[in-house]
Amino acid sequence: MSKKLTSRADDYSKWYNELVVKADLAENSAVRGCMVIKPYGYAIWEKMQAELDKMFKETGHQNAYFPLFVPKSLFEAEEKNAEGFAKECAIVTHYRLQNDPDKTGKLRVDPEAKLEEELIIRPTSEAIIWNTYRGWIQSYRDLPLLINQWANVVRWEMRTRLFLRTAEFLWQEGHTAHETKAEAIAETQQMNQVYATFVENFMAIPVIQGVKTESERFAGAEDTYCIEALMQDGKALQAGTSHFLGQNFAKAFDVKFANKEGKQDYVWATSWGVSTRLMGALIMTHSDDNGLVLPPSLAPNQVVIVPIYKSDEQLEAITNVVNGIMNDLRGNDITVKFDNRTTHRPGAKFAQHELQGVPLRIAIGARDLENGTVELARRDTLTKETVELSNLTEIVKGLMTEIQDSLYNKALDYRNNHITEVDTFDEFKTVLETKAGFISAHWDGTAETEDKIKELTKATIRCIPLDSKDEDGVCVYSGNPSERRVLFAKAY
Amino acid sequence: MSKKLTSRADDYSKWYNELVVKADLAENSAVRGCMVIKPYGYAIWEKMQAELDKMFKETGHQNAYFPLFVPKSLFEAEEKNAEGFAKECAIVTHYRLQNDPDKTGKLRVDPEAKLEEELIIRPTSEAIIWNTYRGWIQSYRDLPLLINQWANVVRWEMRTRLFLRTAEFLWQEGHTAHETKAEAIAETQQMNQVYATFVENFMAIPVIQGVKTESERFAGAEDTYCIEALMQDGKALQAGTSHFLGQNFAKAFDVKFANKEGKQDYVWATSWGVSTRLMGALIMTHSDDNGLVLPPSLAPNQVVIVPIYKSDEQLEAITNVVNGIMNDLRGNDITVKFDNRTTHRPGAKFAQHELQGVPLRIAIGARDLENGTVELARRDTLTKETVELSNLTEIVKGLMTEIQDSLYNKALDYRNNHITEVDTFDEFKTVLETKAGFISAHWDGTAETEDKIKELTKATIRCIPLDSKDEDGVCVYSGNPSERRVLFAKAY
Fold first, then answer.
1. Residue B84: closest C-alpha in chain A
2. Are strands A303-308 and A336-338 parallel, antiparallel or unpaired?
3. Size of interface A-B (CB pairs under 8 A)
4. Is-contact B25 B37, C-beta < 8 A?
5. Å between A297 CA and nearest CA of chain B
6. What span is annotated as the signal peptide, if there is one (chains A, B) (predicted)?
7. Is the Cβ pair A67, B141 closer than 8 Å?
8. Taking the CB of residue A343, how many other CB atoms lie within 10 A of it?
9. Domains in chain B, start-ordered, CATH in brackets?
10. Do A37 and B70 touch (CB under 8 A)?
11. pTM of this prediction?
């Protein structure tokens, strides 16, 4: 725990991996590509879940739970969706182990217990859910159907990284059904906005809302809306997506309804999700060479209090004062922990809380008791100040807001300074190599150009921003006409 | 929705299956043995989760998340545990589908994408968790380690029933590590007590706490504590278990710690869990021939208000009054829903809310407005009364407590009337066939007798109650000496 992290300047990727492990967020498991989310990391995820769940319910959604398994015949019903996930899905073929007949003490798969039909572990649940919706939807009275599921999914990725890309991950997936195309598109947009609001207000990460190009769309979607964030190393990260699925799944699973005129029609669909990947975005947006930096909204402990004492009497006197402080702070909905462990010295405690990103540290010693003061240390700015005990609660309340806002504004400044308009491909390549970030450039709208640029630079079109203006120009690569700029970046 | 349920007297099992589906709790899915938990059923489960999670945290536990998969070599490391689950586990053998070379448009498992080592889908997580704990525990300072996980697990059961026994189910599993045997046993007992408190106070289901016989123990445990409930048909249901695992998993996964004297020792372990099976217990304890009966503590809507009106003006006047009622009730933490759907008549609404077990229904019509009254209908007793609007909030608050208590007491009376002491095997068989319930009888302590009784009667030893008294007697089957009575029953 006490060893220093690799600095971001030295090796950003190594810094990230070390931080995740040393700050007790997650670690690799014995299963290839699957992570263990440790209690401290999970506590942050729980806070994200609680807030998102509240926002989903406020917009009329209900939770439900659908099976982990998708029979192969259902999985392949929506062809594009199946093709998109076929290359990375875990497949259950047997349902029993038997003792090895060679008496080696090992178990082996029982060849007699082969499933008639293979089961795919859900990489996403459209297939199993739309197969279920067929039984739930008969009439327009059954619509809209607004459902969310919190679940684990599996995508057999070859290159994995803690939180950012793991074979199993946790997420939520909304699956809604609507009477009209317009209503489904409005839902798609609404949920993308919910994600943007959550990520900006709670995670303190500015995002750009946009739509994906055809080749970057979700497999089976007619349109994919997204929120794109920029990490400190100038690479983009897709933080959430919301898909307008048209009638593709309704047709594949034969989900029709009687509309108000009594005519049968296929249902319109959306799906939308965010995952434990958000943890990666949180870490890479705010943290520094000393470790994690958490926005107060998502910190399991917003404040930690460390006593500095030389005798049991001093500790007792400090504890009395701390009990009062904790009562006041908790009465103001601030989560606070008194780190009175006797097994660790103050220096070790400071280092740990810094590494774990606790937004505010209060140190209180014998002299503070005499003076009626405490020492505050902000994690985000690494600044300290001595303040009057009598004003402490108000000061802490103010700091919670200030730190939250300051983290957002710092990230926003960085992001805004890293959107570069370019008009030539040379410029494009130079900016990508020297400055990185988002590159705003004209594109001719073809998948060929998109592919070629990706091949040459590794940059992809992150999105066509929702607020992009009409602007005549020529494609940065092909020179063909273009009507608006899109955002390119290298991405996680 | 409007068709009557099969009565319990006619066919208890059919009544249960119909109720689960018609009350919108769950349904069977396209995957053999796996269920879909519908929004209304899931809302009840969420309430259970929230309360249990609070109780776990209050007793010092933290949540974390471990992989869905267990590599076969880890799965088999603790031999008894592996043997216990080997016959019912789903096995992942491949990680990719490919297009069928015969161009049938179907996908098939890619034979090139065979895993080097098979992955077992967790039927329980001791193996993957204890393999992880090895890296987390070095010294007594790392103990106790008190962790819980909310997750899905898979057990490939051949005969499944909604909630009671499904191939995939949702649960929580606590996994703790301790310095001493005594501390681990105390944890095992504490968590069994937490389950008993939850099930009695929130689910209004009386339980008997006890320990399992050796043959009914969790595979790999040294002792299994349990809570046993009695369903309305006289069959027992194991509602939760808490296991003292000794040092079995520590030894299998080599988890040692330096104790306070600096000596290396194996860690002592517990695990404990409850699952969506609790939903089955809830349904079968309180519900009646009209449908679900929910205790107020777990009802998604504690109160539903149905307007009775003949004109839009009447509905408007009623709505004004209802808004005031809802404000008052919500201010008292009572969840209330105004069922102002125009697509359904009052009679259909009454039937639906009765079927779905809403504890209290308020009907309010034009005459009520004139008289300053409303009509209350209790779901548990099916009784109605007209009360003054001015006292409504106090009356409803009182009824919430009264209904909760009344459901518990009714279940307790039934349970207590169905514990029968018998001293001969003839009596044993007669009681089992005529009255069912728990049979309190002497047993000689051998697995042979236990097996024989099970074979002859289908009754198993549910538990040795914690409060059972020393009492000399002779085994009801073998006539051999016995020191205490145990509880037998047929069970779910």
1. A97
2. parallel
3. 187
4. yes
5. 19
6. none
7. no
8. 7
9. 12-286 (3.30.930.10), 296-412 (3.40.50.800), 419-489 (3.30.110.30)
10. no
11. 0.97
